[in-house]
Amino acid sequence: MRELYDILQECARLVAQGTSGVMATVVKVNGSAYRRAGARMLLLPDGAMIGSVSGGCLEQDVAERAKSVQPGRPQLVTYDLQGEDDVIVGLGMGCQGWVEVLLEKVPEKRAVSYYELLGHCLRQKKAAVLATVFRVTGELKATVGNRYFLQEDGLVHADISDHALALEIGQNAAETMSNGRTQVLTHELESGTAEVLYEAIQPIFLLVIGGNQNTLPVVSLAHALGWLVTVCDSRRVYADQSRFPQAEVVYCPVEEIAGKLSLTPRTAAVLLSHNNLYDKAALKTLLFSPVRYVGLLGTRSRSERLLNELTQEGLRLHAAEREKLYSPVGLDIGADTPQEMALAIVAEISAVFSGRRGSFLRDRKRPIHGQ
Question: What's the first-to-final CA gap in the chain, in angstroms?
Fold first, then answer.
């Protein structure tokens, strides 16, 4: 997500300066690849590149092709690495696949700038789905580069003239919003066929309860990943914005979290205060909220004690509430220092939101990028 933020920020700068660049987007991958569909690279007028579309092997060739891209005339480039004598090597596809990259001039010459929309959406902490048409055959009233943009609040922006195609894309965009999985679909209609990339843009919101020293490396690492971070503490000395310039800092009693903050299924909460009363009050709120992940610092016996106390106070904890609690918090990487613990915590959150177990990739029997 950090890469996307950087690209969108640079797009805004291009608009402000009245200059242009070229956006390269991986729209389809067949076989294994270093980057998946949705990976982007922005090529600037001075030759600089932000982001990447491969492990480093395609970038220079993409940059050369980008020089011929004209406004309003996107180019779809296919890199076929199935031949043994292909001049581009090192993509990591084992010479058994290909990658398709869409090149477009930015800022976009259209009534609506979808990258501006996406940037605004993320600043408002809203998820979105960006559907991009990258191949059209037949007589469809659609062209390469047409888009359908769906925000989680239901707002839609689209420039697809074909009503039947727009209807299908809208339905699939809603499904993508729901399942959170980027995908490529082929739409076969009576008047033609369109291939569409559906990107699920769903940033992770990290809520850290407790602004002590252990919080600093967690905030720093989460920010580096492009997560939106909030630090909450009821102690004024810890709820200090100057201590956490990379996060939003909220000063309030933990019992008021639900009223002060937006708690959604894309929220991960980590309790780092290590204060029993404070953490118990936070658990009472967070376990029954929509948040997907609640990490609690401390031993397993400590978390069980706090849960037992909540039960004795009349709260009924079902499997759903217990399932979202991760304590001891973090992946088992032998962490000892605050920095190592931060790495273990952030990695565990990433694994949970990706639906993974956080194990060694060398032991994985299925494709790396598969579910």
Answer: 19
